[in-house]
């Protein structure tokens, strides 16, 4: 798929998983992730991301159809490369499916997918999703080996893992931050050159988002945990608006 990306508006996809995490802590229906999706749509978010995990620790199967019915924003379904998740994706037909690594014991997705090492497992899933008209993204580290694997599989999108950049920011390690930024920028440019749309996400906050947002080839950032955490203090509307403003200012 070709790309006509330019340093225009950077899309903000908001991951609402942790609204569901809070709901599931007590059982019942409150707070409802669907309400979060509606708020994101009302304040300038460009998409909703939801990760349906094997253990259903936050988003549940029934949430997906409810989110799709409640808003016109595109749904990006994060999913493991399993037959169960493939069948769910094919049933719900989200706008996009982002294949992510998933370990049962992890609290959040740690590190990128080894698309190169798992080619034979992932490639048929990419094909079946694409054949169903679902835009396929791979959540990978920003390196040539993984990008080449995504290209060979026919993925239309890659989402670069920004966790190392975020850790370097937390540690105050400006040298490592600069190195990570350069790596993500270089791979974003290479992705566009090869007709793949680059996105980025993981660990992004008000404090560290702007250098990432300033990378002109990036088309979308996916941010979740931080925004839901900020929403506890300032409300989800204000949290999303502020992130939107910071991203726009960086462009």
What does this entry look like structurally?
The chain is α/β, with parallel strands linked by helices. The protein is 49% helix and 16% strand. The chain is built from 11 helices and 8 strands. The chain has helices spanning 17-26, 33-42, 61-70, 83-92, 119-131, 144-153, 163-171, 174-193, 209-213, 225-234, 236-250, and strands spanning 11-15, 47-51, 75-79, 96-99, 135-140, 157-161, 197-201, 220-223. Strands 1-2-3-4-5-6-7-8 form an 8-stranded parallel barrel, surrounded by 8 helices. Helix 4 (83-92) links the parallel strand 3 (75-79) and strand 4 (96-99). Helix 2 runs parallel beside helix 3, helix 7 packs antiparallel against helix 8 and helix 10 packs across helix 11. The protein is globular, with a radius of gyration of 17 Å. The two termini are 24 Å apart. The model is unreliable at 1-6 (pLDDT under 50).
């Amino acid at each position: 798929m070709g790309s006509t990306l330019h340093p225009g508006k950077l899309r903000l996809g908001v991951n609402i998983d942790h609204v569901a995490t809070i709901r599931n802590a007590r059982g019942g229906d409150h707070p409802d992730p669907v309400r979060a999706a509606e708020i994101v749509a009302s304040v300038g978010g460009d998409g909703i991301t939801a990760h349906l995990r094997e253990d259903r620790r936050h988003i549940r199967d029934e949430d997906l159809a409810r989110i799709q019915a409640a808003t016109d924003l595109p749904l990006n379904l994060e999913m493991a490369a399993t037959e169960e998740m493939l069948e769910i994706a094919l049933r719900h037909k989200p706008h996009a499916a982002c294949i992510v690594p998933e370990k049962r014991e992890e609290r959040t997705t740690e590190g990128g997918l080894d698309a190169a090492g798992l080619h034979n497992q992932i490639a048929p899933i990419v094909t079946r999703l694409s054949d169903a008209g679902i835009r396929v993204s791979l959540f990978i580290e920003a390196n040539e080996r993984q990008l080449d694997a995504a290209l060979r599989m026919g993925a239309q999108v890659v989402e670069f893992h920004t966790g190392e950049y975020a850790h370097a920011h937390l540690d105050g390690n400006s040298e490592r931050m600069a190195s990570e930024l350069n790596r993500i920028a270089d791979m974003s440019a290479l992705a566009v050159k090869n007709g793949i749309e680059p996105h980025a996400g993981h660990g992004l906050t008000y404090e560290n988002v702007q250098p990432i947002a300033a990378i002109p080839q990036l088309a979308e950032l996916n941010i979740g945990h931080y925004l839901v955490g900020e929403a506890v203090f300032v409300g989800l509307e204000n949290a999303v608006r502020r992130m939107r403003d910071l991203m726009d200012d960086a462009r």
